[in-house]
Fold this sequence. Notes:
- The structure is a single chain.
- This protein has a single domain, classed as Ribonuclease Z/Hydroxyacylglutathione hydrolase-like (Metallo-beta-lactamase, Chain A, 4-Layer Sandwich).
- It has nine helices and 14 strands.
- It has helices at about 35-45, 60, 65-70, 150-160, 175-185, 190-205, 215-220, 225-230, 240-250, and strands at about 5-10, 15-20, 25-30, 50-55, 75-80, 90-95, 100, 105-110, 120-125, 130-135, 135, 140, 165-170, 210-215.
- The strands form three sheets. A six-stranded mixed β-sheet has the order 1-2-3-4-5-6, covered by helices on one side.
- β11 (about 135) and β12 form a beta hairpin.
- Bound molecules: zinc ion and fe (iii) ion.
- Fe (iii) ion binds next to α2.
Amino acid sequence: MPLTIVTIPCLSDNYAFLAHDPASKDTALVDVPEAAPILAALAERGWTLTHVLITHHHADHVQGLDEVLAAHPGAKVVGHAKDAGRLPSLDLALGEGDTVTVGGSAGQVIDVSGHTIGHIAYHFPDSQAAFTADSLMALGCGRVFEGTMPMMWASLSKLAALPEDTIIYSGHEYTQANGRFAQSVDPDNPDLLARVDAIAAARAAKEPTVPSALSLEKATNPFLRAPELAASLGMDGADPAEVFGEIRRRKDSF
Ligand code: ZN
Ligand code: FE
């Protein structure tokens, strides 16, 4: 049975997610930007946390943890073994290829380092869901703070290779600004133009633009489209990782 997924806006532009297995009632929280809205979403549904899945060490993804655990002391904290030194204390330290089980659903751990070293994504194939935080984002990707451009390109390529019907649950509401940048490097893409209009309508109605379909990201996200954009950036024949790096640098100074 697929997980029931709830999107929780936190702080000014972060998202946390609940993934609930209706049969076992197991409930996982993905990231902890802020306790209050997460605790309210759990209380409203009568759900008790069994897992907290951490994507990476940044404060805006972990800082509500103590307060959430105080109310849900049985939850197991899961994160990347390689980054355990910077993460809150982990009950389950995992790495690339490992699995975390939420009720009847197996989540695969994918190392998507680049934004940080030790960033992970959680892919639940039976629910067509990938929790990507600050790796692949709606119409964007996280800034490459700790890794290298080729490392981030390799991470995004792993996510792009997930099944076509995967839904991407990313960590921030940055989509409208991402759209302005995307149009600067990919102005003639009709799918992008249509998406930018849809984003404007959603934001005007105060609706989230996260999650987003992987198929739409592949058609419109300039960071995934590095190979297609090479020629127009004057980089015909260049390694896609280099083209990605050029697009990421342009975004950093946009
Ligand atoms: Zn981050
Ligand atoms: Fe973040």
